[in-house]
Amino acid sequence: MNSTPQYDALVIGAGINGLYGLYKMREAGLSVRGLEAGSGVGGAWYWNRYPGARLDSECYAYTYHFSPELIEEWTWDEEFAPQAKLEAYFNYVADRFDLKKDIDFDTRVVSTVWDEDSNLWTVTAENGRTYTSRNVVAASGILAAPLVPDYAGFGDFKGTVFHTSRWPSEGVDFKGKRVAVIGVGSTGIQVAQTVAPEVAQLTVFQRTPNWATPLNNYQFSDARKMEVKEKSDEYYALTQSTGGCFLVDTDSRSTWDVTPEEREAFFEELYGEPGLTFYSRGFNDLFTDKAANDEVCKFLATKIKARVKDPETARKLTPTHGFATKRPPLETNYYEIYNQDNVDLVALPEEPIVRFTETGIETTDRSWDFDIVVLATGFDSITGSFVRIGAQGVDGIALSDYWEDGPKTYMGIFVHNFPNFFILGGPQGVNGNQPRCTEFAGDWITTCISYLKSEGIDRIEATAEAESVWVEHCNELVNGTLLRDAQSWLWGSNVPGKKRAFTMYIAPQTVYRDRLREIEANGYEGTELGDKILVS
Ligand code: NA7
Fold first, then answer.
1. Other beta carbons within 10 Å of 451
2. Number of domains the chain is built from
3. Ligand 1 atom 16: the closest Cα is on which residue?
4. How confident is the model at residue 193 (pLDDT cuts 50, 70, 90)?
């Protein structure tokens, strides 16, 4: 193979992470091309256009901080932006920095093959386009590979079925329709609470109830619109100081440092605050002390009982797992929809789906006719989209096989056996408020690739030892918390047949960033740097 690549780097994915990576690498003078399966930019905010799709992190703390001009020019209207506003934002960014000319859209990568002789990747898309590159930056997203359950009779249903992350851009008319929503994660809850007022009948199929807390969104006054721009540096500094890159951090007190009355008052205060505050500003033992976590659950169970009139429905809606051991959804009047006569809840563990029929769905106890079935069933999370790009590393080893027992990475960026393959926003690395976490990782990867190029080094690979130490560290961290017993997509337990393995790094991002700085300062310790000279 000719060892002169077309590109220094190919960035797979033009979502939040990929767009940023592309921008940074181009600014650094690298030749770089973006490959995107969709027809537009925005990633999650391009694909997830279902009714009610909305951010649950504060938008001004979630989006990019790299350009003061961008912050000045763009105006947020409310605390938690809806999908259309976010898609518009990412288009604005892409146009403002002229990124689209460097992206191939409608280009779903299906094969990414390493050649050991030339130290190059050959990347092939479903549409037949082929590229060669010295480096691949996989930014395909942790919630990007949709999970569609395999129900008996699924193909017989004559109504319309949509997975929430493959939503038609022209929208769907729910008015007066008989609708099923399967799944009650963040997405299912957003869909159900949004369509409930207009449908003829809504039936929500729930496998596991979740602890949803109020989003408490609010519209910005003109003064507030200006304030979020003016304070952007202050907000940014906050996101860089907290564990999850959110605006708030864990309370310094334990649950037991306060009286029961003070505790109740604190929970009540958090319940009235916007967004993920309830868990990101909770007591410091929320994730380590079961009894402490139980106190939160008791408080939230009381709220469900108070908001849902039918005690049996309230019981079904009340989870048994610890608060935030699964990612907690945010809601707006979600619990109240069950007080409507035309809304039903089906608890699947008590009444499983038997089959789809031509006209609807049958459970063990009942059957319904539906016009529309919404699959809010989530994703082959964290690893799914990375495996689906068909990466084959040294000696043709497939990433899907290498990760069969769970993801193995060094710092969530490198994978042993996969030289010059960088993950931006994947397993075992960045975790929390994604854009704010990945900005640092994107800068770091850009510096690394630029360094390799300037030094004429054409190969970098994590050592097996560094990788196994990191994987072990990630596992140790989770084993010290209540997350260790969770049934959640963080463990892959939502995907039938997927081996249970923890996929994330859960120490504070401040610690993560320090470690990356250290690795860079020590000449990329934990990796082997090749000594071949680049052919120019
Ligand atoms: P989630 O959070 O994975 O939620 C998916 C939901 O679908 C969840 O309630 C699942 O139940 C349910 N599910 C999955 N498979 C089935 C089958 N076969 N039958 C019935 N129910 C099923 O995905 P979301 O899209 O809601 O949210 C993803 C993230 O996006 C979210 O956390 C935020 O970070 C934003 P389970 O709980 O697995 O029993």
1. 15
2. 1
3. 377
4. very high
